[in-house]
Write a structure and sequence with these properties.
The radius of gyration is 16 Å and the shape is flat. The longest helix has 27 residues, at 65-91. The chain is 87% helix and 0% strand. By secondary structure, it is mostly helical. The protein has one domain (4-91). It starts with a helix and ends with a helix. Helix 3 runs antiparallel to helix 4. It has helices at 4-10, 12-35, 39-60, 65-91.
């Protein structure tokens, strides 16, 4: 049986959380037509969070700093794109 310590030290806890994020994104894409969900903003937000989770996973397993920086840059880019789309929506 896997312990909590092993889940964190191996990064598998992040894999589990990322699986939930992917399931959430699939759920939002599937139900967007019935409930009027503003998909671009939500997916941008989910992508930003997923990139942060990837950076955490890399750090937990002792990955190189350049991979962590790349994941953080991806989170920043997704966040800026999400913010930009929300800003334009507010201005309209």
């Amino acid at each position: 049986m896997i312990t909590i310590d092993e889940l964190f030290s191996s990064g598998q806890i992040i894999d589990l959380i990322l699986a939930f994020v992917v399931a959430e994104a699939a759920f939002l894409v599937f139900f967007r037509n019935w409930h009027g969900i503003p998909l671009p903003g939500l997916l941008g937000n989910l992508l930003s969070g997923a990139c942060l989770l990837v950076a955490l996973r890399i750090a937990l397993v002792g990955g190189g700093w350049h991979w962590i920086a790349l994941a953080l840059a991806g989170a920043l880019l997704a966040h800026v794109l999400d913010f930009n789309s929300r800003w334009r929506k507010e201005q309209s």
